[in-house]
Amino acid sequence: MSLFVEVESEEKNCKVIVNLDTVIEIAPLRTGGCHLFFADSAAVGGKTAMKVKDSYSMFQQFVLQTVSEEDIAKRIANLPKVEKEPYPRFISDAEVTPPAQNVPQPEQTRGRGRPPKSGMVTTADLG
């Protein structure tokens, strides 16, 4: 379910309703207000900005959790240790399976779809 908020648009000079699910970034401005950034499909990684008069602190209430550098360092320290395999790895003869020789292959049946083209006779062949 989407979350909508009413904000005061700087460009339009009126109140607008914004879907916060489409907002990818909110940046505070020194002069007051914020820039709301939306994804722009016209450019790879592009953003479209909308300047609003509402304060940054109004949007902070919608943040689930503020993440600090210490939080990230703790999460990285708790990740499970993975044993890395050296590259290139030596493949022993026991791991290599020999190709099957003289093994009859099962007959393949056609599934659904267009049947194969038949040898049709055209007027050019009647010549």
List keywords for this structure.
single chain, 127 residues, alpha+beta, OB fold (Dihydrolipoamide Acetyltransferase, E2P), two-stranded antiparallel sheet, 3 helices, flat
Helix content: 10-25%
Strand neighbour order, sheet with most strands: 3-4-5
CATH topology of the domain at 4-77: OB fold (Dihydrolipoamide Acetyltransferase, E2P)
Distance between the termini: 70 Å
Largest sheet: 3 strands, antiparallel
Rg, Cα atoms, Å: 32 Å
Mean of residue pLDDT values: 81
Helix run count:
3
Principal-axes geometry comes out as flat
Strand content: 25-35%
Provide the structure class.
alpha+beta
The CATH architecture term of the domain at 4-77 is Beta Barrel
Order of helices and strands: EEEEEHHH
By DSSP, the count of extended strands is: 5
Uncertain segments are none
CATH class of the domain at 4-77: Mainly Beta
How would you describe this structure to a colleague?
The chain is an alpha+beta fold and 127 residues long. The protein has a domain at 4-77: OB fold (Dihydrolipoamide Acetyltransferase, E2P). It is 14% helix and 25% strand. The chain has helices at 56-60, 69-77, 123-126, and strands at residues 4-9, 14-19, 23-28, 34-40, 46-52. The mean pLDDT is 81.
